[in-house]
């Protein structure tokens, strides 16, 4: 099979196309013939920084394809099933930038009927991260479904990003009023296409006033990508007992929290990363995300605020560079025909 591999960390030039044996699934494992792979910031960050004890790595946490073979003891999946993958390279050497991958069955999720492989490969890290952020509040829902967030106003920082877009779509599906911040008119158009009720340019001097106008009683939950830049704004617009869910460190690795304004509101800061997320929470996310996809509530493409950028398997290095360079939308690697 064709696979993208690297055996040393560094820039995207360490990636190369190689021919490798098709892997065989062991007990509890599933082999998937991949059609698409999704590229996330975590892919280039791992490539640049850590081999994690493996001699050779095939990058890629997300993907979509068709079940090709089953190991002993696998239930609920069958050869020929269309599926999407999550955390495919977590604690494994071989992810989704290859024609085939073998995964633990728990990381292989049926792709709802009618959903494209483009959508399936775009779920994974962004959608599961968004789900955790939306369900971690003290008074919010633990599961997402229509009506679960009817009483809530959600502020999504960076609504044109992959996680931000997924958070907008999921929160809107669950009934929340969604406010989002962006940095340009172009990104504002994408956030509006995703379903945000109110879009605010955070660079404007009146950003705080605009958010307060959209949420006069205060925001119940913030999905935060850049706490070092946005904490003051978050404190200003949240209501008592709100939650600030932080999933990234864009714009700075450290920030200062003023104690009095924070504890006077009984605020909760919830930090999250998928790799150490409790399995029960991850499973709940997979179920709810799949339900949203089946309902047509999670979409990709320009009309959903997620422009798609396609690269061939041979162009995986360019795909990594596109993500590292801040490509707006979803970068996908085309591995096979649909």
From TrEMBL:
Signal peptide: none annotated. InterPro entries: ADH-like_C, ADH-like_N, ER, GroES-like_sf, NAD(P)-bd_dom_sf, Zinc-ADH_QOR/CCCR. GO terms for molecular function: oxidoreductase activity. Residues 10-333 form the Enoyl reductase (ER) domain. PANTHER family: QUINONE OXIDOREDUCTASE. It comes from the Bacteria. This is NADPH:quinone reductase. Keywords: NADP.
């Amino acid at each position: 099979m064709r696979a993208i591999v690297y055996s040393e960390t560094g820039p995207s030039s360490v990636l190369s196309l190689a021919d490798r044996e098709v892997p065989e699934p062991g007990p509890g494992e599933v082999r998937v013939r991949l059609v698409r792979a999704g590229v996330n910031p975590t892919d280039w960050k791992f490539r640049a920084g850590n081999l994690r004890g493996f001699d050779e790595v095939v990058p890629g946490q997300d993907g979509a394809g068709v079940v090709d073979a089953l190991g002993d003891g696998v239930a609920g999946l069958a050869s020929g099933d269309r599926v999407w993958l999550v955390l495919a390279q977590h604690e494994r050497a071989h992810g989704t930038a290859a024609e085939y991958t073998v995964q633990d069955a728990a990381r292989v999720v049926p792709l709802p009927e009618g959903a494209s492989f483009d959508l399936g490969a775009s779920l994974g890290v962004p959608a599961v991260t968004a789900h955790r952020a939306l369900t971690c509040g003290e008074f919010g829902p633990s599961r997402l479904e229509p009506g679960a967030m009817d009483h809530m106003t959600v502020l999504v920082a960076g609504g044109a990003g992959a996680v931000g877009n997924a958070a907008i779509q999921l929160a809107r599906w669950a009934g929340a009023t969604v406010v989002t911040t962006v940095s340009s008119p172009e990104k504002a158009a994408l956030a509006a296409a995703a379903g945000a009720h109110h879009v605010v340019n955070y660079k404007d001097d009146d950003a705080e006033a605009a958010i307060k106008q959209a949420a006069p009683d205060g925001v119940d939950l913030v999905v935060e990508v850049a706490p070092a830049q946005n904490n003051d704004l978050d404190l200003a617009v949240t209501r008592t007992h709100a939650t600030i869910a932080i999933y990234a460190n864009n714009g700075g690795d450290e920030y200062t929290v003023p104690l009095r304004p924070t504890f006077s509101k009984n605020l909760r800061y919830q930090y999250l990363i998928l790799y150490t997320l409790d399995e029960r929470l991850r499973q709940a996310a997979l179920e709810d995300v799949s339900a949203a996809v089946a309902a047509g509530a999670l979409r990709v493409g320009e009309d959903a605020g997620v422009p798609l950028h396609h690269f061939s398997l041979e162009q995986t290095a360019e795909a990594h560079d596109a993500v590292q360079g801040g490509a707006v939308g979803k970068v996908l690697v085309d591995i096979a025909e649909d």
